Amino acid sequence: MSDLPSPLVSICMPAHNVGPxxxxxxxxxxxxxxxxxxxxxxxxxxxDNTREVLESFTDSRLQLHPNPQNLGxxxxxxxxxxxxxxxxxxxxxxxxxxxxxxxxxxxxxxxxNPAAGAVFTLDHHIDLQGNIYGGTTxxxxxxxxxxxxxxxxxxxxxxxxxxxxxxxxxxxxxxxYEQLGPFLAKRYHVAADLEMWLRLSLAHPIGILDxxxxxxxxxxxxxxxxxxxxxxxxxxFFDIMDxxxxxxxxxxxxxxxDQTEYAFHRADDETFRAVNHxxxxxxxxxxxxxxxxxxxxxxxxxxxxxxxxxxxxLRALLQCxxxxxxxxxxxxxxxxxEYKGML
Length: 343
What we know:
This protein is α/β, with parallel strands linked by helices. It is built from 16 helices and nine strands.
């Protein structure tokens, strides 16, 4: 860390039934090049061998705090953050893997950029076996930017959803976290992190390190997958974006392309929900959702073009089948193709 001080970092790690991966995750955090850390793992009622794996570590910097009852991921993050004593708070996950320099790089960024409230990094994607198969990249218009503000973050998320701010790479100044307040888990459920990032970026500039300093494990039964299973209510993403669109008159400040891309996300979500209505044996509700129309102008934009055409084709298939009364024929087809895989 050159001649910079080394303040204490509280690394907060919620855990629930992550026995196969928690050893590697916690080991990667304890093996950081930045040594002045406390690692607070809050076990949210695990029923597998998660606790046994944790108890096998002998590093005094590791603290295990079991929840008295199952609280859920974001409430567990809130509890972990409240237990920490560090000047900086990091929210890391117990089923991902961290490169040895992530803490050092994030601390250095916050020390060198006093205006920034928090920092994120990019990530590699890994499968259940730990094999890397992709990763996140900064969009060209954000590359080289030391500080990002709400006006940089919000339009990007409106157009692309949140492929930018990676929750398990988050490090924030304690005073900023205390000013913002906790993740609003009861209100925003699986998207409580997105609401927090927008709340944060309204109050303080943030940074994204243009390095893949963690490996994010996919296919592990994430909260989003459980949330989306046969979901028929609108995705909470829209509640959050509509709320923040009202702040600063953003509905009037967006350009037409931003608005069109956001309309596509609504049509995409309606299509997803229509599929789930069919799978639940509710064809009338599915057909009603598909009457809302599709933002055809979005096809002019290169962003997510393949996905858009697939959504159009699926909507046409659903509408045709449902109007012909062939919902029973659609059901096995949709189960085989698995809508998420098609798109």
